[in-house]
Amino acid sequence: MKTRAAVAWQAGQPLTIEEVELQGPKAGEVLVEIKATGICHTDYYTLSGADPEGLFPAILGHEGAGVVVEVGAGVKSLQAGDHVIPLYTPECRQCKFCLSQKTNLCQAIRSTQGRGLMPDATSRFSLNGKPILHYMGTSTFSNYIVVPEIALAKIRSDAPFDKVCYIGCGVTTGLGAVLFTAKVEAGANVVVFGLGGIGLNVIQGAKMVGAGKIIGVDINPARQELARQFGMTHFINPNDVENVVDTIIQLTDGGADYSFECIGNTKVMRQALECCHKGWGQSIIIGVAEAGAEISTRPFQLVTGRVWKGSAFGGARGRTDVPKIVDWYMEGKINIDSLITHTLKLEDINEGFRLMKAGESIRSVVVF
Ligand code: NAD
Ligand code: DAO
Ligand code: ZN
């Protein structure tokens, strides 16, 4: 079949809208009509050429929601008409990683997904006979996609696609880092570095669990108002204080119980660790730093009890946790609508990237 898609031909170039050839689902695969997709910072990171594993030509996008059109042989858990969110972190429930219950990093299709291919090591997308690669196993900038069954979360059918698509990455990454990775407890003091599409969801998660002080740090003062609506109690603009770490230590009587780095800046990662409380403070790295970057601190920071952790997709097990997060949205327990600042047509997808780069949007959503 043919599908409309935004194709990334090479790093640094705008996407172009094409009628792409899409092969149907093979065994264990599912054809999905994508109804809406968010544009995430990570799509920009890959398109910019900064991602050393970025492959071209490819169809980017990893934050979508849609409807199952057809299932391949052997698919048991889904049928045509089911509403789904594609998962760039699948959940096979059989690999060593899934069975460990210690991580959400399912490895069942990792090697082919990392090469932009389906599990049989081929692409379902092509144009003029030449293959176009998948991206993060999802490629939600295409109106129709083929995805392995283990990379689809089935969600309730009354949830609006143009809002819950954001649960496919940003919402789950932020909330999950608080709930699943850090397991923040009520009353804990939390510091969030970077108040963008991820950081605001960390704030929302911290508020949800009843955190004490929720301190936001951002160089963009315009982020303050929305962050306060989501539960931030104190704001620090690093440009207005002499030393961010000292300011946080004073505000929290010795340091944060939990800090979250939601920028991808290795210098800020160090501040996020060093503002943590001696003896128990934990710092969670969410931001993706530039290729080859390294983090540093004095080892004594760790000897004296501070803990450095990372979080991918919020530590969420997609098929298990994503439907629950959709329920929370539908029950009014979390706010997504205020974070979706722009809704665009596929033809205007490059405008979505411009808005992100200019810091003018929190989330732009493309509706097909
Ligand atoms: P964003 O651009 O919307 O937000 C980043 C925020 O950081 C902005 O408000 C910006 O003003 C602020 N900022 C920039 N430099 C700063 C500094 N030096 N000090 C303080 N604030 C600063 O980005 P986002 O969509 O929220 O994504 C944040 C990061 O998370 C990116 O690196 C992205 O790739 C990564 N990410 C990680 C995962 C994961 O699973 N770990 C998932 C999605 C995104
Ligand atoms: O299992 O080795 C692996 C890789 C899992 C990829 C997890 C990606 C999370 C961070 C990238 C940001 C995604 C939007
Ligand atoms: Zn697995």
UniProtKB/TrEMBL annotation:
Entry cofactors: Zn(2+)
Keywords in alphabetical order: Metal-binding, NAD, Oxidoreductase, Zinc
Enzyme Commission number(s) of this protein: 1.1.1.284
PROSITE patterns reported for this sequence: ADH_ZINC
A Pfam entry, by short name: ADH_zinc_N
A molecular-function term among this protein's GO annotations: S-(hydroxymethyl)glutathione dehydrogenase (NAD+) activity
One GO term (biological process): formaldehyde catabolic process
Domain of life (superkingdom): Bacteria
Family classification: Belongs to the zinc-containing alcohol dehydrogenase family. Class-III subfamily.
Protein name listed in UniProt: S-(hydroxymethyl)glutathione dehydrogenase
Species: Agitococcus lubricus
